[in-house]
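Before relying on records like the one below, remember that each one covers exactly one chain. Contacts with other chains, cofactors or solvent are not represented anywhere in the record.
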Amino acid sequence: MHISQNFDAGNIEVVSCERADDIQLRIRKDANSDFYQWFYFRLSGARGQACHLQILNARDVAYPGGFENYQVCYSYDRQSWLRHPTRLQDGVLQLDFSPESDSVWFAYFVPYSMERHHDLVARALTSKQASHALLGKTADGQDLDLLRFSSGDAGKPRCWLIARQHPGESMAEWWMEGAIELLLDENNSLAKQLLEHCDLYLIPNMNPDGSRRGHLRCNARGRNLNREWAHPSLQESPEVFHAKQAMLDTGVDFFLDVHGDESLPYCFIAGTEGLLHWSGKQQAQLDFYRQRLAELNADFQTEQGYPPKQPGQANMTMSTAQTAHLHHCLAMTLEMPFKDTTATPDSKHGWSAERSKKLAHSCLQAMLDYLQSEYYQA
């Protein structure tokens, strides 16, 4: 038997792998950080054997509640991912699994590799209405990509969509893939209407270094990018530095930052109610978007989520608070679960890549409806 993780987004440390019934593992911390929770590894040479796998340091992960009622993702072909019963016992994440093949992959959520990211960017540029800008380089020297979809007409609302500030939240880039696929569909009426009404700016992956390294939350410098927006550093958080500058150059009329939540089994939107001068108009805009999204997609709900902050209590180091403050626009964080949704569960797949992509379609429809509503014009 062998456990391997030396591939794009891989993360695991082997403590013991001598017996199938006693495979002991640990999750590696993000570089220059104490954050950890993302894992992704391959088990080889155990076909037909009753394996007992334990992740020993699950007690001290960034979000211990994330492993409660959690089911691990596994795949034999890295295309189709299913869920398998998993239990958290005495701070150890445990699963019993008998592989049906010579190799099986396990992951915290369905991975989204940097190679797939590059394929996505290349596919987007097959559209005559898409263009690309290299915003800059990451600390590891990777490209930070910006895609723009526009009909070329001037004066339209500028809508910014960013994803995967936290690299372990791979559902965020699956969401981006869903959004881009819709925009590439020349026969899709929603895509046509969007390009008539707005210019879209998309950063499909804000954290390429963390994604490739198999991090949960940080970039190569150990920085949580969604706490860098007040004063981003070209040395420590170049990803935010370049993104924020590009947004200042274009202006922003709508902003959505796409994430995943480890603990909460819901899809929800977090707003910027904590801004010092939060107004009734801003609340009505936020309420409209959330309610419209709930009407469009049964996986989304408005009852559960993060408690809204009181006016003046906003964390100005976060992307949404900074963007709403600087650009006076509707700025929101979309959260999707690592686990599953309680109201619309799927015991076979849990929350999945495909559901993330479908939610993106609904988010784009809700965005168009917002831009055409009295709330945006008000």
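The longest strand covers residues 130-137.
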